[in-house]
From TrEMBL:
Gene, per the UniProt record: xynA_3
Top EC group: hydrolase
Domain GH10 span(s) in chain numbering: 1-297
Active site positions, chain numbering: E232 (nucleophile)
Family from the record: Belongs to the glycosyl hydrolase 10 (cellulase F) family.
GO MF, any single term: polysaccharide binding
GO biological process: xylan catabolic process
Protein name: Beta-xylanase
Top-level taxon of origin: Bacteria
Reaction equation(s) it catalyzes: Endohydrolysis of (1->4)-beta-D-xylosidic linkages in xylans
Keywords from the UniProt entry: Carbohydrate metabolism, Glycosidase, Hydrolase, Polysaccharide degradation, Signal, Xylan degradation
Organism name: Paractinoplanes toevensis
Included range, full protein: 32 to 332 of 452
EC number(s) recorded for this UniProt protein: 3.2.1.8
């Protein structure tokens, strides 16, 4: 097939992009979006600061805009993210203890209920594990409400939207390392105890190399009985960019429970990684070598 989405669909997968509501009036941007992708993720619009700017007062305008764009394309919509220690609204940043825990769970319930039946997969919890060698949780006000906050969030999300796949999402999990193993152990424990979890997202914000065990790391999670998804892919520009993109694509295709790939933006100028040119389309919207290598990898399967 001749587009990313149609090529991924040949194996029952999706190929998605993170999109911004404020860019949907740009015809170059929406032209590429409508042509190439069959999944969308809101880059910021469904986060806590956007959806609950003051406690108990919800604003779904940006998120709904992304949802309707996705629906108009017949695309899957990934929800991102119900709980994250960053982009907490100011009122939540200054909370702690039982009051914060109650606010967290109310947030999960309210947002997942608003989008009930419309979201393919939710990043229920984002980036809750520490970088480095500890394999443990990241310190945050969320974590200080008690170690069970993650399972409580997954249970609340399941109750609110039983048909959405519920994902844990993180970065620096691109191979077998202390952080990915900490997450692996949590997922294994959740599956053993019946805590609802359906998928693990591997953000895959990559530099100029990729760990040799990228695919086997995906596979070990899949073997626990969860789907895996590449959720925020971007790769530093350099001699290896096209090859690294192809390696990630082939790894997903080789893992039967890898259900799709999302790139974190459309054109290089849309990326949060300013100056790194990490995406598949240049600033003018032209296809880069990395685009062609992904398309070829999808069609070789
Ligand atoms: O909307 C305001 C605007 O009103 C204001 O004038 C402007 C001035 O700074 O800020 C705008 O908000 C910015 C927002 O992006 C929308 O552009 C925030 O400052 C900025 O912090 C925010 O950055 C986002 C970042 O998450 C926040 O941590 C990036 O767009 C987004 O790509 C990035 O995405 C994260 C994923 O959610 C989780 N994984 C890592 C990934 C990259 O950091």
């Amino acid at each position: 097939a001749s587009t990313l989405g149609a090529s991924a669909a040949q194996s029952g997968r999706y190929f998605g992009a993170a999109i911004a509501a404020g860019k949907l009036s740009n015809s170059t941007y929406t032209g590429i979006l409508n042509r190439e992708f069959n999944s969308v993720t809101p880059e910021n619009e469904m986060k806590w600061d956007a959806t609950e700017p003051s406690q108990g007062s919800f604003n779904y305008s940006g998120g709904d805009r992304i949802l309707s764009q996705g629906q108009s394309m017949g695309a899957k919509v990934r929800g991102h993210a119900l709980l994250w220690y960053q982009q907490e609204p100011g009122w939540a940043q200054s909370m702690s203890g039982t009051a914060l825990r109650n606010a967290m769970m109310n947030h999960v319930t309210q947002v997942a209920t608003h989008y009930k039946g419309k979201i393919y997969a939710w990043d229920v919890v984002n980036e809750a594990f520490a970088d480095g060698g500890s394999g443990g949780r990241r310190d945050s006000n969320l974590q200080r409400t008690g170690n069970d906050w993650i399972e409580a969030a997954f249970k609340a999300a399941r109750a609110a939207d039983p048909n959405a796949k519920l994902c844990y999402n993180d970065y620096n999990t691109d191979g077998v390392n202390a952080k990915s193993t900490g997450i692996y152990n949590m997922v294994k424990d959740f599956k053993a105890r019946g805590v609802p979890i359906d998928c693990v997202g591997f953000q895959s914000h990559l530099g100029t190399s990729i760990p040799g065990d990228y695919q086997s790391n995906l596979q070990r999670f899949a073997a626990l009985g969860v789907d895996v998804q590449i959720t925020e892919l971007d790769v530093a520009q350099g001699g290896n960019q096209a090859n690294i993109y192809a390696t990630v694509t082939r790894a997903c295709l080789a893992v039967s429970r890898c259900t799709g790939i999302t790139v974190w933006g459309i054109r290089d100028s849309d990326s949060w990684r300013t100056g790194e040119n990490p995406l598949l389309f240049d600033n003018s919207g032209n296809k880069k070598a990395a685009y062609t290598s992904v398309l070829n990898a999808l069609n070789a399967a």
